[in-house]
């Protein structure tokens, strides 16, 4: 049996991604790596006004308000949602272009 040795060219460092940039990208993907958060983004984006009150998001997810609020906070911290306080309620809106920016941050590096 002979070993195939076609893979002799080492990868080049033409794509520069420092550890801090990699950590930022990972944080964004980690925020999206939960089915409830994906559902929240989808529900909010589908609303006519492109916003939703936390009180309207608990029932569709079948989760309690504290759990939904936690998921929303993660999405706000990751830059996918904005939060506006109105009286005792918080309203969340999708940040336009946040998802494409996350994915483009990886692919733009290969175009350099």
Total domains = 1
- First CA to last CA: what distance? 42 Å
Helix content: 40-55%
Query: Helical region count?
Result: 5
Structural class: alpha+beta
Kindly report the spatial arrangement of strands forming the biggest sheet. Answer: 1-3-2
CATH fold topology? Arc Repressor Mutant, subunit A
Largest sheet report: 3 strands, antiparallel
InterPro entries: ArsR-like_HTH (IPR011991), HTH_ArsR_DNA-bd_dom (IPR001845), HTH_MetalResp_TranReg (IPR051081), WH-like_DNA-bd_sf (IPR036388), WH_DNA-bd_sf (IPR036390)
Pfam families: HTH_5
Domain HTH arsR-type: 17-112
Organism: Nesterenkonia lutea
Task: Produce a short descriptive summary.
By secondary structure, the chain is an alpha+beta fold. The chain has helices at residues 19-32, 35-46, 54-61, 65-77, 98-110, and strands at 51-53, 81-86, 89-94. The protein has one domain: Arc Repressor Mutant, subunit A (Orthogonal Bundle).
Using brief descriptors, characterize the structure shown.
alpha+beta, 3-stranded antiparallel beta sheet, 5 helices
Secondary-structure blueprint:
Elements lengths: L18 H14 L2 H12 L4 E3 H8 L3 H13 L3 E6 L2 E6 L3 H13 L2
Antiparallel strand pairs: 1-3, 2-3
Structure description:
- The protein is α+β, with helices and mostly antiparallel strands and 112 residues long.
- It has one domain (22-110): Winged helix-like DNA-binding domain superfamily/Winged helix DNA-binding domain (Arc Repressor Mutant, subunit A, Orthogonal Bundle), CATH 1.10.10.
- It contains 5 helices and 3 strands, in the order ααβααββα.
- The protein has helices at 19-32, 35-46, 54-61, 65-77, 98-110, and strands spanning 51-53, 81-86, 89-94.
- Strands 1-3-2 form a 3-stranded antiparallel beta sheet.
- Helix 2 crosses helix 4.
- The protein is elongated and about 65 Å long.
- The mean pLDDT is 86.
């Amino acid at each position: 049996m002979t070993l195939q040795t076609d893979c002799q060219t080492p990868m080049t460092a033409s794509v520069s991604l420092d550890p801090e940039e990699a950590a930022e990208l990972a944080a964004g993907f980690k925020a999206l790596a939960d089915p409830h958060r994906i559902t929240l983004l989808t529900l909010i984006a589908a609303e006519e006004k492109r916003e939703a009150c936390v009180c309207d998001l608990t029932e569709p997810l079948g989760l309690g308000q504290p759990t939904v609020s936690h998921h929303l906070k993660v999405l706000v911290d990751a830059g996918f949602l904005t939060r506006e306080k109105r009286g005792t309620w918080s309203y969340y809106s999708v940040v336009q272009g946040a998802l494409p920016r996350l994915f483009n941050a990886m692919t733009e590096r290969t175009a350099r």
